[in-house]
Amino acid sequence: MTDVLRRGRVSLAFAFLVQGVAFALLVTRIPAVQDRYGVSDALLPVFLAAVPILAGIGSVTTERLVKRVPPSRVLRWSQPVVLLALLGVGAGEEPAGLGVALAAFGLAVGALDASMNMLGVSLQRAHGRSVMLGFHAAYSLGGIVGASLAWAGAHGELALWVSYLPVVLVLLPAALVGSRWYVDGDGGPVAGGAVGKGGAVGLRWLAPLCLVMTVAYIGDATVSNWSAKYLQDVLGSSEQLATVPYNVYMVTTLLGRMIGDAGVRRFGAVAVVRAGALVAAAGFAVVAGAPGAWVGMLGFTLLGLGLCVLVPQTFAAAGRRAFELRGPEASDAAVARLNVFNYVGFLVGSPLVGALGDAWSPRGAMLVPMVLVLVTLACARSFAPQPDRYGGGHERPRTADVGRGSNGL
Question: What is the per-residue pLDDT across 181-217, written as a single tens digit (0 to 9) for each?
Fold first, then answer.
């Protein structure tokens, strides 16, 4: 079983990496997509907003789907759809074709994100220790790789489909091969023998985690959408220097997630989440008060180190708590519902900061996500595991009760 879990962990990390590559290749080439299809500035936000909305629908659909098929199967077949939809975005010629490709991308991304994190939560339960941040570190690494490939394609003035095709040809078969070793967790110690009962996931206890997920993605959307403009327009940097903060943010996100699991094992999830929230709030404060570009970049560096721990730990906490209450089916349902608030934060973040910047000031707008991320401190107790369960020094699940390979292992 140790070999099964090890292979499952590696294969799932690769799935996270592939998703990071695909998403970065899409979002970093939005201007090229707009030019290819002749989409106006007024219409572009409609196309872009449709992706997270449909992703939310895909996530909710996955909650129902995994009652009949294992999450590993949903992930196995949604990932190729994401990659093919990405290629469709690059190869189409008419706006209608772009709409179809983005719709397929959004729906498949919702199913993929939900099923990926379901498997991550169950693998963490099987290992009996924090491993969730490592999966999200693989996603961050994929984002860096994807952004680099996008830069190379733009620098070489390659057509979108020429940039996307080699990536899809390499990653699609690799993802399908890797999917043979996905592991579906199906049990472990549960209070009151609740395994298998499933049942509705209560919204009362999940609400604080949904709030943290929304806040984390508002912060992430603020960095991805406004860091370059803020550095150039407010802090007076050059156009070239303005591209640096997001890259720094991605790198520090990767580094924070690489070491984050060790921090959770040593200090516990509550302490790590509180520390992440405080560091992220400090980052927004530095950005808001920065006298120049280099101090502003320091603020974005702090944001990467702080925000990086919130999302993985929120998924882990939701899955763990639902499992304790009602068993593995409820854990999957909680992850799927929580994943919807990923897209809520993404939709809210950029317009919120932009509107506040216009109505108030760009510096003042940065204080709003700072205050929102501090709300995480009030929700931190929701990340605490129940005594004598598993993970963070608690009882480890019996290996015989956990982990079925998706190929029948």
Answer: 999 864 333 333 333 444 455 667 899 999 999 999 9
Percent of the chain having pLDDT more than 90? 58
**Rg value, the chain, Cα:** 21
- Examine the pLDDT at 134 and tell me if it is beyond 60: yes
For 67-76, what is the mean pLDDT?
94
To which H or E segment does residue 183 belong?
strand 183-184
Instruction: Read off the pTM.
Output: 0.85
In this structure, are residues 321 and 190 in contact, taking their beta carbons and an 8 Å threshold? Answer: no
In angstroms, the CA 54 to CA 58 distance is 6
Please state the length of the chain: 409
